[in-house]
Structures are given as structure tokens and as C-alpha cells.
Amino acid sequence: MVVVSMALGAPGPVSAVRRANLSRRRCGPRVMMCAMAYSVPDLPYPYDALEPHISEEIMRIHHDKHHQAYVDKANGALAGTEWEGMPPEEILTRLDDLPEDLRDAVRDNVGGHYNHSLFWPAMKPEGGGQPGGKLLAAIKDTFGNFKVFKDTLRAAAMSQFGSGWAWLVDDGTRVFIVTTSNQDNPISDGLAPLVGIDVWEHAYYLQYENRRADYVEAWLNVVDWEAAQDLYAAAPRPDISDVLARSVSIAGTEKRFGDITLDDARTQSAELKALAGWGPMAKVGSIARGWSDLASTLDKHGAATVADLHAGIVVASAKELWVIPPGRSMV
């Protein structure tokens, strides 16, 4: 896996709990692969529904032939083993536990089944545009704006050498873009895939020949961002209840940090700015700026309270505001 959003750095260590949460979270009708032999899910739209962007011929061959081949080989590889019928999410988060002589076949074919089962519902007729709500806010937090995100996703899809995928993923605290080779899936690295573009040639060659860039542009016109928003809402999050429950004083009134509103943040910023530069309170200026930043973040996200913000933003703000003690004295 390659992290494309390099300014973010590589993903941090993934806990066993997060891997377990990821392995359980998509066992349902969208992927249709739980505790039974795998089967190819029906397309959620007619074969010709994505034209002119993706042709009926490609959809028939890609869905009926290529995806079916992954299913057949996955079922064959797992038949008679303790892994038979296990949800793909669980298998793909435990690849190191597989017998070595089984691992490559499972990675390729269970991965191919899982990837394509995410791929079909990630598209829809009259798709494209951009997401809304918390997913759009998370994208803007990482990339600045949606245009930069799209440019980065295009570049990622073009940069993948040979066969593979480009993904928007969530690590529980932020979203970013990665690429994977062949049929690898980000879930194996503890990341929740939100939307992925298949850049294997079988996904586009009959229509676009070697013009991958044209295919990527066409695919952006059929992305189902509502489906991506649903996956983002379901993605595992770190437990920040302790941070949200911490007490802060706003204008002499004690409030839970999670209950802080835009007006509260503005009030706190104004009061602390008045103290900045005065004797033992000389370092308060930086905290005042932190409250001002929090007010801007609440405003930008349209969040009623801190509890409505992404977990990563909450933790970062709590550290900046010393709601989470820094382990040293303030002055």
C-alpha cells in the first residue's frame, strides 16, 4: 500500500481492536458475503445505467465474468479449511494467520471479491458531484478543498503501476488517499475504505483502451457519494468519551468539553485574549488562539457542539487547549 497524501505521513500502528471492528462492520446486505460460500452480488442498477461513462459491455464482462472468477477461485481456495465461509473482512484483516501456501490465493481472490463488492454500490447513474456533511468536512480538513482532493485522487489512480486501486480511506481520525496493488484492500492495513476506483485494465480497456486518464475522469461522473458518506458514518472511531467529558470553565460556568458551542469558543477566546501578555499569564495568548481556531472549526463544519466534530479534530483541539494536560506546568 502506498499513502498518496504524503503530507499526512504514513498511517500509525493499528490496534487489534480496530482490526476486529473493521472485520465486523460490513457484514450485511451491501456486501452479501457473511458465513456462507461467496457469491457475486447483483448490480444495484441495470448494466447500461452508467453509460456513456462506463459501457454496458464493460459492466457485463467486469461483473459477470471477472467478479465471478474471483468468487469461484476464493471459494475453491477456502473449501475444506477452517476459513471457509468466513466473512472476507475478517480474513483480510488476518492474512498473516493464513497458511503460507494459501495466503497469496486468498489475498488475490477474496480481496478481488471484496473489492468488487464495494465497487458496484460505489457507483450510480447520475452520480458524481461531491459528498456533503461530515465526509466533505473531513475531506476539506485533509486536502483544503474538494478540488485538491479530486486532483490528488486522479494523480493516485494514474500513479498506480500496472493493476490496482486508488482509495479514499479513513483511519479513525482522518481521511486520506492510498493506492493498493492487484487486489489488496486497505482493510488489511487497518484502514476503512470509503470509495475506490478499479484501475485494472479489465475495468476500462474495451471502452478507453490505454487512456486510463479518460476512464478516471469518466468514473468521477458516476461516484455515489451518498454511499461513501454511509461508509464514513459506519467507520470505527477511537473512544474519545473521556475527552468529551472533561470539564472546562466558560465565563465562570463549568461545561463538558463535548458540549462547547461556537458561542462558547468565541467567548473563551475573547476573555483569554484580554489576559494575554500580562505577567504570569503571558502564555495564555496561544490558548486564546486555540479557542479562536476551535470556533472557526465549529463554524466551518456547521457543528452544533465539539461532540459533533471528527474524533481526530476533537483530540487535536483538546491538546491545543490543554483540556488534555500537556504534562508540564503552564507558565
Quickly list its features.
331 residues, 2 domains, 46% helix, single chain, minor pseudopilin epsh fold, 4-stranded antiparallel beta sheet, alpha+beta, two-stranded antiparallel ribbon, elongated
List the helices and strands and how they pair.
Layout: E1 2-3, H1 16-25, H2 56-78, H3 88-92, H4 100-119, H5 133-143, H6 146-159, E2 164-170, E3 175-181, E4 192-198, H7 205-208, H8 212-219, H9 225-234, H10 241-245, E5 247-250, E6 253-256, H11 262-275, H12 284-301, H13 311-320
Antiparallel strand pairs: 1-3, 2-3, 2-4, 5-6
Helix pairs in contact: 2-4, 11-12
Please provide a written account of the structure.
- By secondary structure, the protein is an alpha+beta fold.
- It folds into 2 domains: 2-234, minor pseudopilin epsh fold (3-Layer(bab) Sandwich), CATH 3.55.40.20; 241-320, no CATH class.
- 46% of the residues lie in helices and 9% in strands.
- It is built from 13 helices and 6 strands.
- The strands form 2 sheets. Strands 1-3-2-4 form a 4-stranded antiparallel sheet, with helices on both faces.
- Helix 2 (56-78) runs antiparallel to helix 4 and helix 11 (262-275) runs antiparallel to helix 12.
- The longest helix has 23 residues, at 56-78.
- The radius of gyration is 23 Å and the shape is elongated.
- The two termini are 44 Å apart.
- Mean pLDDT is 86; it is low at 6-17 and 24-34.
